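yo

u said u wanted the structure for the complex thing, so here. seqs first:
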Amino acid sequence: MSNHLISIDDLGAEGLTELLDLSDYFLEVSGRRIPKVPVLRGKTIAWLFWEDSTRTRLSFETAAKRLSADTLNFNVSSSSVKKGESLRDTVETIGAMGIDGIVVRHASAGVPRQISQWTDAAIVNAGDGWHEHPTQALLDCYTIRQERGSLAGLRIALVGDIKHSRVARSNVKAFAALGAEVTLVAPPTLLPPTLDGWPVKVTQDMDEACAHADVVYLLRMQLERQEESLIPSLREYTSRFGLTSARARALNPRTLVMHPGPMNRGVEIAGDVPDLANAVVTNQVANGVVTRMAVLYQLLGSGAGLVPELEVERV
Amino acid sequence: MAERERTSMPPNGGVFVAHSQPMDVEDVRRALWRISHEVVERNHGVDDVVIVGLQTGGVELSIRLAQNLSEIEGTLPPTGTLDVAFYRDDIGLRSVGPAAPTDIPFALGDKVVVLVDDVLFTGRTIRAALDALTDFGRPRAVQLAVMVDRGHRELPIRPDFVGKNLPTRRDELVDVTEEGVALGTYEAAAPQ
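structre next:
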């Protein structure tokens, strides 16, 4: 793993597996009477969120505090960004304060990568435009692994607005790297212009996809897409691509139902579906803290950038 | 093994070469029986005793200690494992992560915890373990059992139960395995 986590490509199958294995240790820590370990004492992590987020920021914040890091919130709406400060000046200012890690969310793809060239701090991408959201992919892989032991050979149906989804891009890469077969289920208007190089199959038949899937992963339907005429109506979207109560009941009882949140109940997922036994949406949220602990520890606390200890043979 | 981690490595890797065997398998077995009786004697039985083995070198010994206690007293004390990687004072200075699971599926409040490790050296692992235990509860007391005390303490920590006091040089390595206790050094690997 490099000094940053910007894309799932930075990890590969080996790096992903390493982080998932590490997450097991932090799952145990999270169950303790005092769920806090002193691994990042004296480290400071800043949140740079140029785009709204509740759960991702809270999840990172919880993770950092359980590792004993200090955290700083950079509130864009009340900052000098409003006064016209450039991205670079903002980042260099924060860097000059001796910040060890920066967790970034920005509406433009590529901002985290760009920032990583302006500062010595470790950069974690918490979502950039339509590009990637690697910690979401990590927590999803961890949740699936927890339920099924492994992703190898699993059939995962990724349903909804693929085109505008950074979650989809990160998850397709991560699922495929760990050996799952991914099928995209979406109307053509919600697919990217090209799928060259995507290790996926594509279908528009939700019932067919559900019948074969080990995991049905629903993406959030962004309601403004209706105004862009990408879908005829929300009602039609729901009937063709939503996980309705009828579709959910027809699923194999072992098929997992996942959603990155926030959910539009009644649109991509029927109101009662998240409460079914095979829906693991709340597990995803809990695992978000655990896997983000692994990421922050790996980047800031493990000394992974240092020379590894050599294995010694015994004779 | 914890002992192995602490030893500085030759720059190009190396091999552990045993020079002597201070304890064979029978010596270890007898020492563990003596320690078991001492634990019972000190605590007037094992009713409030719980055992925690340090990952990875202390775990096997902790399981055997618990079995001995069960044979002596008729009750098997609760036994758990603890990995202290997250509490080490050199975390971030060296590339070392957790090695094996922590699993303490019982409450420590008001219990006597017997910490078990294979080798006591600088005392830093035990310092970390004491910190970690605090996060699980407030034991009435913590006692330390080790198979080998090799000296060279860097912190004011002493064992309660010792298999063998073994004088060593700082650059030597003590290896506790199923075959007993070996004392040796690292020899630089032959040039490729």
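Helices of chain B lie at 2-6, 25-42, 59-73, 124-134. Chain B touches chain A at residues 4-5, 9, 13-18, 83, 86-87, 91-98, 101-103, 131, 134-137, 175, 186 (CB under 8 Å).
cya
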